[in-house]
Structures are given as C-alpha cells and as structure tokens.
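ok trying again, last paste got cut off:
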Amino acid sequence: QVQLVESGGGLVQTGGSLRLSCAASGSNFRINVMGWYRQAPGKERELVADFTSDGSTNYADSMKGRFTISKDNAKNTVYLQMNSLKPEDTAVYYCYVRARSMWSNLWSSYWGQGTQVTVSS
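nice, full thing came through this time. structure:
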C-alpha cells in the first residue's frame, strides 16, 4: 500500500506561482509513474504532467511552458512548479502514482487526497 501526501495548494492572483509537492510513503514498493492531474468544477479529471515509466516527462498542451514537473527519487516525491497561473487553472490538483509491491508484478494506481488551487482574476 502506498500513501500520498500533497501540499502546496492555495490562493494566488493571476500571473502568480505555486509549487505543489507530493510525497509517497509505504513499505517495499516500486514506482514507475508519478504525476499530477487536476479537476475543475463540472469538468473531468485531466492530466497536467507526469513522469512516464521510461522516465520521460509528459505535459498537457495548455501547461507547456508554464508548469514544470520534477521529482526526487530518493524521497519518492514529485513536485509541480506552476508559473504564470491563470483563472482557468483553478482546480483540485491530484497527485498520481502507479506502483507495485517488491514481491508482486501487479501495478496499482494511487491518488492523493487533492489540493485546491485557486487563481483569482
């Protein structure tokens, strides 16, 4: 079992910045995907950015150039630096991890509790 703890959301004005963090914890697990999704009111959850299983990064088009995903493998932590924020970035941001036990070949998906990001105009 993997637990995800997110932090860093809040209220910011248009053009401002925020940095989200997500730390994964548990016993004897291996992660192959880490990333961020978001869900705005009345909309479906969408990918923001992630590290794919081969270590490359993947961004949604609307976030390219403004958001940067990074990670610290030693800490099992993924970050999302968000710059030039817009009101349409307002959403609940969820950390996502795909992981498996060291003794299993089955990968499972895990989600954080979500952190609210609100961008005022």
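cool. The first strand starts at residue 2 and ends at 7. The CA atoms of residues 75 and 95 lie 15 Å apart.
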